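Reopening this ticket.

The earlier resolution said the output was attached, but the attachment link was broken on my side. Pasting everything inline this time so it's all in one place.
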Amino acid sequence: MRDVINSLSEHHAEVRFHFNSACGRSTALDIKCFGEGRWVEEDSWVSHCYGQKAHSKTWFFVTALRNGQDIFTFLLPQQDGIEWNVEEITEQRGRVFAVHGGKTLDLVIIRPEQRFEWLWLRFMNEELQEVVSPQNETDQEIDLSDPFLSALISGVKNYVRH
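Inline output:
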């Protein structure tokens, strides 16, 4: 997910997650937020049925956003034997995240000024397996020979965790 603000002044922002009372954040999702902020936990309520409520937890990422700043959030399912790790790769021409999980490496690329705003590349054993771009509404192929993408793909071994 991407939360972004366009404003002339700074704004307080919270990305909030409410969890079922039977399971908490640690058993449901692995949540990774990228932005200048901090995590806060608070006691709250959840309703499983009209007229009933149960104690629960709310986790939220709180920050102050200035014009053009954003928060990227990755919601990763908890699965036995899979440890998720998300790292931001420093890149001047966009935002790039390496998502490690199990035997895969995904590169999530955000470049708003391009024909695609989001691009997802999945690798297994350092080989490109899949390319997905939700904003690519045409049947045009994503040009993987683009110098930016080509450099990321050829350098994928730099992001693989052994």
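Reporter confirms the inline version is readable. The first helix runs from residue 25 to 28. The longest strand covers residues 54-65.
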